[in-house]
Amino acid sequence: MKSRLVASAAISALVLLGATGCTFISPQSTKIEYSASDGVNISDSDGPLDVRNAFVVANEDGSVGNFIAAVVNPTSEKATLTMTVAGIDKPFTVSVPAGKTVSFGTEGEEPLRIDGLDTMPGATIEIHFQSGDGAGTKTEVPVLDGSLPYYADLVPEAESEPEPGESTPTPEPLPSDTAAPAPSE
After folding, report:
1. How far, CA to CA in Å, does 9 sit from each of 1, 14, 17, 18, 21?
2. 3-state helix, strand, coil in the chain (%, to 5)
3. What is the pLDDT of residues 96-134, one digit of tens each?
4. For residue 99, what is the DSSP state?
5. First to last CA, the chain
6. Which residues fall within 8 angstroms of residue 137, CB to CB, at 6 or more apart?
7. Where are the alpha helices (DSSP H) in 69-158?
8. pLDDT tens across 32-81, in order?
9. Which helix (DSSP H) or strand (DSSP E) does residue 7 occupy?
């Protein structure tokens, strides 16, 4: 009877060890960092800002896209993010107040429109993100379409060409929150 009890305890110990020993030979998947959504996360070790869940929703021909993301400033000072999209000459700049998050394309927030995108949905586009004094980070950002219902409202309208004889509206400059330099003496 004692041998049965010892054998039963030994088998129980082996089953317990076998069932819990998986972490000894394989990495824990919960410790692997990844983007849990369709976008990518960008952290620049040299800069103060982080970009979360960045992606572009493009129209059908890929000529226009809307940049969707959240830009996080965990510091105690205002910071600026400069984004340079491959193939587009003029960079985009975003000012983020200290300790705040600026979102694009979320409920109530407009996305950042990218004209001249020239990237089809399903591909990626290289965007250079730079903040602070750092060199920045180049990242391949996914370009999506509006086939999923929650992205359908984010698909940009392509600009239509004016009819002959029609005038096109002239864009008006928007005020910026940065001060002009003081005149030198």
Report:
1. 13, 9, 12, 14, 18
2. 15, 30, 50
3. 999 999 999 988 899 999 999 999 999 999 999 999 888
4. T
5. 102
6. 42, 43, 44, 128, 129, 130
7. 149-152
8. 777 778 899 998 888 999 999 999 999 999 999 999 999 999 999 999 99
9. helix 2-20
At 81, which helix (H) or strand (E)?
strand 79-85
Q: How many CB atoms lie within 10 A of CB 118?
A: 16
Structure tokens at 136: 């920045």
Backbone angles phi, psi at 20, to 5 degrees: -105, -5
Q: Which residue has 């001249």 as its token pair?
A: 116
Tokens at residue 85, please? 């999209």
Rounded to the nearest angstrom, the gap between the alpha carbon of residue 13 and the centroid of all alpha carbons in its chain is: 48
Q: Give the count of beta carbons closer than 10 Å to the beta carbon of residue 120.
A: 15
What's the DSSP call for residue 29?
A: G
Nearest Cα to Cα of residue 83 among 114, 106, 105, 109: 114
pLDDT tops 50 at residue 90: yes
Q: How many CB atoms lie within 10 A of CB 127?
A: 26
